[in-house]
Amino acid sequence: MTTGIQALTDTQTQALLLKLTVLADDEIILAHRDGEWTGHAPILEEDIALANIAQDELGHAGLYLSLAQTLGGSDPDRVAFWRGPDDYRNTRLVELPKGDWAFTMVRQFLYDTAEALWLEAATRSTYAPLAEIAAKAVREEKFHVQHTALWVERLALGTPESERRTQAALTELWPHAAQLFQPVEGEDELTAAGILPDLNAVHARWTDLITRHLVDKCGLTLPDAPTTQPGRDTHTHHLAPLLEEMQSVARQHPDAEVW
Amino acid sequence: MTQPHFPSSDTQWPRWEVFKQDAPNRPHQAVGSVHAGDPPHALVTARNVFVRRPAAVSLWCVREDDILTATPEELTTNPALLDSPGEAGTYHVGVKRTNKRSMTFVDLSGTVTAGGPGDALRQAQSLHPDVLAWMVFPETAVVRTDEDPGTVESWFAPAKDKTYKQQQHYGVIGRHVGELKRAGLMPGRAPSEDSA
User: Fold this and answer.
1) Which residue of A has its CA nearest to B12?
2) Measured between alpha carbons, how far apart are the two ends of chain A, in Å?
3) What is the mean pLDDT of residues A150-179?
4) Can you tell me whether residue B5 is helix, strand or coil?
5) Distance separating alpha carbons of residues A47 and A203, to the nearest angstrom
6) Which residue stretches of chain B have pLDDT < 70?
7) Chain B environment of A140 (Cβ under 8 Å)
8) Looking at residue A180, what is its pLDDT?
9) Element (DSSP H or E) covering residue B122
10) If DSSP codes are grouped into helix, strand and coil, which group holds residue B47?
C-alpha cells in the first residue's frame, strides 16, 4: 500500500468489506456456472472462450478479496472455499443452473454489462486501491460484453428455435437481474464519500444499454420485473449443491499448504 | 462480405484463418483457424482462442475459401494453380519458411498487385523461391480488428500481464516428487541401472 491513500472510518471499512465480498461472490459463482460448460460448449472455440471468461471473472474475485484482506478480511481461499450457502452473498441470477446456451449467454450479457458499467464508474473512486482494481478489470469486462452481446444478437435473430430459447431465457432471468443493483448495508455512505459508484446511476445506464440491445436490436421483449427483490442472504436451492462441488477438494484437503 | 453458403453434407460454420500481429512492427502471422458464422464473430472468436496470452496488437481473419495456398510439390504436380481465376487487385503474400515450430506459422511478407489469385501465387513464387509453402489472398477478403485505443485496451492489453506459468511454479499437495527422491523415499530403478 502506498502512502496518501484515503483513510477509511471503521464504519466505512466494514461496509467496503461487505461490498467487496458481495462483488467477489457474484464472480465466483458465475465463474463456476461458466466452468460447467468446459467440454460441453456448442463448439470448441466457445468452450475455450467461456473457460477463459470464467478465469477472468475468478481473477476479478481474487482482486476484490485481496483488497478485502488488506482491510482486515480473511484469506481469499478461506472466503471462497470455507463458507456455506448461508454466508454467500451472491445474487440469485448467477446461481441458477447453467441451462442451455441461450440461457448462459443472456445471463452473461446481463451480468457483464452491469459489471462493465460498475467497474467503469469505480475507476473514478476516491479510494485509490479500488480505482486501480477497477481500471484493471474493466478492460477484460468490456471484451466480455462484446462477446456475449454478439452471441445474444445472433441467437435472438437466428432461427425460430434459437429466438424462442433466447426469449425464454430472458423471461426466466429478468426477475433476478435487478438484484445486481441492491446496495449493501452502509453503501450509501461510501457512495456519498465518492468511494463507491452511485448504484442508481449505474442501474439507469444499464437499463438503457440493455434495452437498446435486447429490445431495439434483438427484438426481444423485457418482461415485467417484480417490484421487490429478496436480499442477497436468501438463495435458491441451487446454491448448496454448487458449493458442495466447488469446495469439495478444499474440504477434502483442509491442511493443504499450497494450491 | 461473402454470402454464407452451406455445402450439402457440411453443417459446420465456415473456417477462417487467423493472423496475429504480436507488435506494431512485426508481420501478421497465421496462427491457426476458427469456425465462425460471420466476420465479427470470427474476430471475437479469434481473440478468445489466440490472444489469451501474452501479446498481440492486431488480428485479421480471412475466410478459408478466399485463400490460395501451394507447396512447391503441389505446383509441380498441378501447375494450373498458377492460373486460378479471380478478381484483380491487391493480394497479401504469406510464406512458410520453417517446420521448426510446433504450430503452422506463416509470415505475411507484403502485398503484390495481381490480376488474380493465380497471378499473385506466381509472383509469390518468384519473390520467395526457396520456401516450404506460399499463401495468397485478396486485400478485400481481410476483416480486421479496429485500431482505436478502446479495442486495443480491451482486446489486447489484458493478455500482456498473463504470462505462461511454468510447471514448477505450481504448488503440490504433499511433498514434491523431487524432494521424495532426494530423501530416498521414491521407489527407484534397479540399483544396477542406476550405477550403470
Assistant:
1) A43
2) 25
3) 97
4) coil
5) 31
6) 1-9, 101-104, 164-173, 188-196
7) 154, 158
8) 96
9) helix B117-127
10) helix
Is B175 part of the contact surface with chain A (CB cutoff 8 Å)?
Answer: no
CB contacts under 8 A, A 116-145 vs B, are 136, 139-140, 142-143
Q: How many CB pairs under 8 A join A and B?
A: 49
pTM flag (> 0.80)? yes
What cell numbers appear for A73 in the block?
A: 478480511
In this prediction, residue A2 carries a pLDDT of: 47
Cα R_g (chain B), whole angstroms: 23
Alpha-carbon distance of A29 to A94, in angstroms, equals 6
Dmax (CA) for chain B in angstroms is 72
Which H, E and C letters describe chain A, residue by residue? CCCCCCCCCHHHHHHHHHHHHHHHHHHHHHHHHHHCCCCCCCCHHHHHHHHHHHHHHHHHHHHHHHHHHHCCCCCHHHHHHCCCCCCCCCCHHHHCCCCCHHHHHHHHHHHHHHHHHHHHHHCCCCCHHHHHHHHHHHHHHHHHHHHHHHHHHHHHCCCHHHHHHHHHHHHHHHHHHHHHHCCCCCHHHHHHCCCCCCHHHHHHHHHHHHHHHHHHHCCCCCCCCCCCCCCCCCCCCCHHHHHHHHCHHHHHCCCCCCC
- ipTM, two decimals: 0.86
Secondary structure of residue B194 in the 3-state scheme:
helix
CB contact under 8 Å between A256 and B41, yes or no, is no
Residues in A 153-172 with any Cβ partner in B closer than 8 A: 154
**Tens digit of each residue's pLDDT (9 = 90 or more) over B145-192:** 888 788 788 888 888 777 766 666 666 667 777 787 888 887 766 555
Nearest CA-CA distance, residue A147 and chain B, Å:
6
- Please tell me which of the candidates A52, A136, A142 has its beta carbon nearest to residue B48: A52
Which pLDDT score, from 0 to 100, does residue B162 have? Answer: 74
Contact A17, A68 (CB under 8 A): yes
Q: How far is CA B74 from CA A1, A174, A226, B70, in A?
A: 63, 57, 66, 6
Hey, what's the cell of A248? 469439495
Nearest CA in chain B to A140: B154
Asked if B35 is an interface residue toward chain A (Cβ–Cβ < 8 A), one would say yes
Interface contact B48, partner A, CB < 8 A: yes
**Cell numbers at A111, concatenated:** 451480468
Please give, rounded to a whole number of angstroms, the shortest distance from the CA of A61 to a CA of chain B.
16
In the stretch 96-125 of chain B, residues with CB closer than 8 A to chain A read none
Residue in B closest to A139 by C-alpha? B154
User: What are A29's three cell numbers?
Assistant: 459463482
CA distance B114 to B109: 15
